[in-house]
Amino acid sequence: MAKVPLAQWVSHVEAFVDVSRAPAQHSASVDALAALVNKDKLTLFDLVSNMEMYLTTTDHVVRSRGILLLGEILCQISFKQLDVNAISTLSDFFISRLSDWQALRGALVGCLALLRRKQTVGSIIIADVKRLLETFLQNVQVQSLAAADRKLCFQILNYILDHYPEAVKTLVDELLYGICEAIDEEKDPECLKLSFHLVEAVMKLFPDPSGLATQYASEVFEILSKYYPIYFTHGVGDDLDATRDDLSKALMHAFCSTPYFEPFAIPLLLDKLSSSLPLAKLDSLKYLDNCIRCYGADRMGGHATTIWFKLKEVIFSLPTDQILSTSGSSKDMEKNNNQIVSEALTCLKTAITHMGPLDENRLINLILLDEDIVSSIHSVESEETSVLTLQNLIQLHALGSVISILAESSAYFCTRVLQAHFVRLVDSLEISAGRGSQHLNNRSGSSAPINYGALYLSVQMLSSCREVALAYQEDFSPIKSAKESWWLILEKKMDSIIHLLQSVLTIDSQPAQSALRQDYVSCAVKGLITIATFPEQCSPLSANAYEEVLLTLTSVIMSKCENVHLWRLSLKALTSIGSSIVEFHASQKENIYNKVVVDKIISLDEPYDTSIPLNLRLEACFEVGTSGSNSMLRVARSLEEAVVSSISEAGLPLLFCLFHVPFL
């Protein structure tokens, strides 16, 4: 291909070197020269040869512009095949220019372009990468540069660590010292993001306990700690590559990069949990959660006590206005659960599940025997909890969450929790249930001596047992055969539990309901769903007890349609139970479900049945039909028969309604 004469392209070089030209002209010159090289109309050798005066002149302004032009062109020919000699020559040149502080920008651009080239098109060799790093560490004072140049420095160091780790193995001391010096006092958001990644990369690169990274851990973390928590705000329209969330995540990854940060990071994070600033508290919880995972059980065991007390303080001590802004309904409470409490509970779960075997007993004793936990549960067991204030509900839900997390962590933890509290809670419910009928039917709904707290915690523990059963369902026989296990405790109290849950649904037959009474019903229905949806091989229910649960819920569908809240909860419960049968391939349960539920529901298709409004009958058929394909077919056939019967009797209104059933 014909080469372009010198006169036709040298003007682009002159335009770029001329600092008085507009930036757009500078960019156009780079684009034009790079295009000529990429199209083989200008060789790189000819370009460099004819640019020699611009690259070596003593005029530092011209020299810096010339070196920058060559670096920018090199960026744009990253896919251009270059031979070994060309790469070597360019490497020598740009590495040597790192000591030329007046032309440093171009040297940085050129070095980064060389590092980013792929082997398939010609790339810098490892020996030259090492030489580049050595020269950089000896000559470049990062914090003395402008933000754009500091960004280039951090990009170069990151790229070497990420892609050429073998080049730094013999430069550990110099590298760590250089990084500390480079990142200290950094303020620019984009540079900070890169510097945090730099710490993460270098600390992961040298995990040896006897290595220099361990010795530098204190010094490096002292620098990182100055930025925690991240206080950085930016406008919605700001064009930045680093948002506050980006910076926080990058700093968190740096915190988690090595377990040797543990002696410094954990005390800092635990201290910040006491901050009055919600954002600082939230960040501390997220960081702590990740650090627990990364530092390992051996290092975190010594912090177990402090972690528990700090998390307990967050979970139970937040002011009401920070936790909930609703009227006090448990549904509203769950919907508006504060993010800080949620993160604290997540962190607690992580702490429990990541502790080593030696710390398990100590941790569960810390929580189960905690004076505040024991006192709260004893309070729940007493009759005083029958009148629930907003603060009572907040504390109850927090307590239930802690107990659930603990019980769900393992079969052993589940057994310990049930041994400590479950039997007494059920006994408390049985005592209070004797007076339930009279008060729950009180239309004012202002009080209900059936112990809601005991009911709520008991159902939470039932849910935890089901989670454990799901986790161990593939090999459940050891749990069943153990002399002491949560499953045996549950099995022994199952008749009492079913009776108690039934009593709430049986008592609550009035259409008018307060929010509190609806909470009772919702909790009881949740309990029935839970015990009926254990995997078949793990279920503590006998076949008769399972049938009794289904009969209880089905009787609501057949006879309590005036109580719409209870009716719809029961219908959803039957649908969930039917779906679990399909999920777990529970053949024995399926037979019982078909007999008790499906047969009853399809009887609602009778056109002359006026005991339940037509729209509710169709809704019940639809919901139960969605629980599985077999149920769907039976309900569909029954509805088809009803359509035929209606046509024969000229029952057009029923036919019209049936056309609106979604699955027909």
The strand count comes to 0
Helical segment count: 35
Question: What is the typical, i.e. mean, pLDDT?
Answer: 88
Unreliable residue runs:
320-337, 440-447, 659-664
* Alpha-carbon distance between the two ends: 72 Å
Structural class: mainly alpha
Instruction: Report the radius of gyration as a whole number of Å.
Output: 36 Å
Shape descriptor reads elongated
Helix coverage percent of residues? over 70%
Largest sheet: none
Beta-strand percent range: under 5%
Task: For this entry, give a set of tags.
664 residues, mainly alpha
Explained architecture:
This protein is elongated. The chain is built from 35 helices and no strands. With 664 residues, the protein is mainly alpha-helical. Helix 26 (452-472) packs parallel to helix 29. It has helices spanning 6-17, 23-38, 44-50, 52-56, 60-76, 84-97, 104-116, 126-139, 147-163, 172-183, 189-205, 212-225, 244-255, 262-272, 278-295, 297-300, 304-317, 320-323, 330-335, 339-353, 357-368, 371-381, 390-408, 411-433, 436-440, 452-472, 477-481, 486-507, 515-532, 543-559, 564-584, 587-602, 614-625, 629-648, 652-658. Among the domains are: 1-124, no CATH class; 572-658, no CATH class.
